[in-house]
Amino acid sequence: MDQIKAKLATLRIEADESSAKAEEYKAKVKTLETENMQKEQEITSLSHKNQVLEGEVEKLEALVKTYKDEASAGTAAGSQAESMQRKIQVLEEEAEESDRTIRELNEKLRQTDVKSGHYERKVQALEQSRDQWETKYEEMAKKYADTKKELEDFVKQISDI
C-alpha cells in the first residue's frame, strides 16, 4: 500500500514537472515568435530605408554630375564656380555618407536574416521539444489513470476480503 502511495506521489510529481516544463516551453515559443515578428518588421523597415537611401543617392549623384558639368563648362563667374565646388564637395560627402549608410544597412539586413534563420530553427527545435513533452505528459497521464484504476481495483479486492 505504501509502495503504491509512493508510486502515485512520484507519478504526480513527474506529471506536475512535465506540465510546468510544457508551459515553460510554450512561453519560450511565444517569446521567440514575437522576437521573430519584430525582426521581420525591422527587416522590412530597413529594406524600405535602404530603397529610400538608394533613391537619394541617385538624386545626389545626378546633382553632383550636374554641378560638375556646370563647373567645367565655365558658365559661372569665379565666385560662383567656387560656390559650386563647395556644393559639389558637400554633395559628394553626403553621397559617400549615404553609400556608407547603405552598406551598413545591407550588413544589418544580412545579420538580421541570419538571426531570423537562427530563431526559426530555434522555434522549430522548441516546437519539437514541446511536442515530445506533450507526448510524454499524455503517456504519464495514461499511466497515472491506469495506476489509479489498479489502485481502486486493489482497494476493492482488499475490501471484499
From TrEMBL:
<keyword id="KW-0175">Coiled coil</keyword>
<feature type="region of interest" description="Disordered">
    <location>
        <begin position="72"/>
        <end position="99"/>
    </location>
</feature>
<dbReference type="Pfam" id="PF00261">
    <property type="entry name" value="Tropomyosin"/>
</dbReference>
<dbReference type="InterPro" id="IPR000533">
    <property type="entry name" value="Tropomyosin"/>
</dbReference>
<protein>
    <recommendedName>
        <fullName>Tropomyosin</fullName>
    </recommendedName>
</protein>
